[in-house]
Each structure stands twice: as structure tokens, then as C-alpha cells.
Design goal:
Blueprint: H1 35-39, H2 56-65, E1 77-87, E2 98-100, H3 101-113, E3 119-129, H4 131-142, E4 148-156, H5 160-165, E5 169-172, E6 177-180, H6 193-212, H7 218-225, E7 237-240, H8 242-246, E8 252-253, H9 256-279
Parallel strand pairs: 1-2, 1-3, 3-4, 4-5, 5-8
Antiparallel strand pairs: 6-7
Helix pairs in contact: 3-4
Length: 280
């Protein structure tokens, strides 16, 4: 009988079957060749079965912030958050939520120089903190040439007030509050006239900055600061939402959407002014 002729086809014919295992020996799992691994030996092997699931980055985001990874987008607006207590020259306990001024100041310098950033949104939810550190951050924000907008969510108390009013435009949420009170010191205080004079001058710095960067008058601000009866066993005033706007401290009641919309309008005006200056 004449054998039929077959042309050998690579990988198909001729076919060499796998010999059956010897008695008493369990057959091993079927192996799948990975052609990419032959070219790159350091690459991890690709298994035959695909396992669907979340990526490592998504799992890390779920672990850290309790949500899936937010898609990254390129924006001309940078958001700065000032939360917790503003930390100054003394390091606060690790359980405190803090905003470190040595982290904020370099960021503000970098944002002023970054050509791709055209506006800065500052979100505040702070209880206050170190007076000099807060004033340093407020002065940096007020001295920026790019448009800045602040929005107070939750609270912008104590030294957070100058930071909130240091931007070109400010918003406060309807339920947010701001506490205005005199400067206080913690720890050992030397009871001499010079200490009182130093506190008085520091108080004047806060009052002067706040009144220069908002619509509130110095007399009204000091009246709110030294008002008695509102805070238990203390002096000062708590302003909530609309009240901060009515006294001229904050520009408008609004949320994050209003702040972003206003910032985009300020950016457009800023671009037009730069074009006019360049043409001249």
C-alpha cells in the first residue's frame, strides 16, 4: 500500500504526542509557552488562565482613601488644601492633622513659577494654629501674581481667617464657620510688660492684614474679636456662612463649583491683561 505524502508544517505536522505518564506518577500541569518570556528572561511568566480584578494602583487607592483610583487629568488649576492645625516652629503630636508651613511655602513658590498652572484653588478646613506660620502662608498667597480663590468648608478659624481672605476672591459654605478671637499663647509666659507689647504688635499684624485684604473695617473686626458673651468663658465671635459675608469678611457664599467657575473667569481676565501688556 502506497503511503500518502504530507508536507511538514511547522508547529502542526509532524505531531509528536506526549507519552503517557508512568504508572504511579501524577501528570504535571499543562504548561503554556510565553514567547515574550523567551525574548525577555526577566519578565514574569504569563499563566494560561487570566484572572480579572483591580489593578495594584486601584487596590492601593482603595486601601488608603477608601475609593477607587481617580482618573488623572491635566488641568491649569492647582488645588491646595489647608486642613487641621497649622504647624509652626514646634512639631505637633503625630495624632494631630496638620498643615506644615515648610511644605506649603515651597509649593507656592513652585506654583508661581510653573507655566502650566494658571490658577490656584485653596480649600480650607482648619482650626488655626501658629500665628507667624499662618501669616507667612497668607502673605505668600496674597503676593502671587496668578489668580487665587479660596473656599472655606467646615471651618476657617483663628489664623485661618487671614489665609482665607488673602486670595483674590473668597467663598464660604453655607454651614461653614469662622472664629475671630484675640491671639493666645500656650505654655510658659513671662509676665512682664514686654510680653504684652509683643502680643499687641502681633495682634495688630493680624488685624492689619485681614482688613487690607477684605471689605471689613478695622473697627468692626476688633469689635468682633473682643466681643464677650458668645464663646463660653472667653471673648470672640463665631460667624457662620452668610454672617461672614454680611460683615465684609468673605466675598460670597458658595461651594466648590462656584469657586472653580470664579477662578476660571479670573484666569480669562488675567490672560487678557497679560496679552495687553505684551502688545504694549
Amino acid at each position: 500500500m502506497k503511503k500518502q505524502g504530507y508536507e511538514p508544517e511547522p508547529g502542526v505536522f509532524p505531531y509528536s504526542p506526549i507519552p503517557p505518564p508512568e504508572p504511579g506518577i501524577e501528570p504535571g500541569p499543562e504548561r503554556h509557552e510565553d514567547p515574550d518570556r523567551n525574548n525577555d528572561p526577566d519578565r514574569e511568566p504569563r499563566h494560561g488562565r487570566r484572572v480579572s480584578g483591580k489593578s495594584k494602583n486601584s487596590l492601593e487607592a482603595m486601601k488608603e482613601v477608601g475609593t477607587t483610583q481617580v482618573p488623572e487629568i491635566k488641568s491649569n488649576i492647582h488645588c491646595l488644601t489647608i486642613i487641621g492645625q497649622i504647624e509652626g516652629h514646634l512639631v505637633l503630636p503625630p495624632q494631630n492633622k496638620t498643615t506644615k508651613y515648610e511644605h506649603m511655602i515651597p509649593q507656592l513658590v513652585a506654583l508661581e513659577q510653573a507655566s502650566e498652572i494658571e490658577g490656584i484653588l485653596i480649600v480650607l478646613n482648619t482650626v488655626g494654629g501658629d500665628v507667624e506660620a499662618g501669616l507667612a502662608i497668607a502673605e505668600m498667597i496674597a503676593g502671587m501674581s496668578k489668580p487665587t480663590v479660596s473656599v472655606v468648608l467646615g471651618g476657617g478659624h483663628s489664623i485661618g481667617v487671614p489665609i482665607a481672605v488673602g486670595t483674590h476672591y473668597s467663598y464660604i459654605a453655607n454651614t461653614a464657620s469662622m472664629t475671630i478671637h484675640p491671639i493666645r499663647l500656650n505654655g510658659l509666659v513671662i509676665g512682664v510688660p514686654q510680653t504684652y507689647e509683643y502680643l499687641d504688635k502681633m495682634q495688630d499684624r493680624v488685624v492689619r492684614f485681614t482688613t487690607e485684604h477684605s471689605k471689613i473695617s478695622e473697627e468692626k473686626f476688633r469689635e468682633l474679636m473682643f466681643r464677650t458673651g458668645e464663646l463660653a468663658r472667653d471673648i470672640g465671635t463665631v460667624l457662620i456662612g452668610r454672617e461672614a459675608v454680611d460683615v465684609g469678611l468673605i466675598d460670597e457664599v458658595g461651594g466648590i463649583g462656584d469657586a472653580v467657575k470664579k477662578l476660571n473667569n479670573l484666569i480669562e481676565e488675567w490672560k487678557k491683561s497679560r496679552k495687553e501688556v505684551s502688545l504694549q
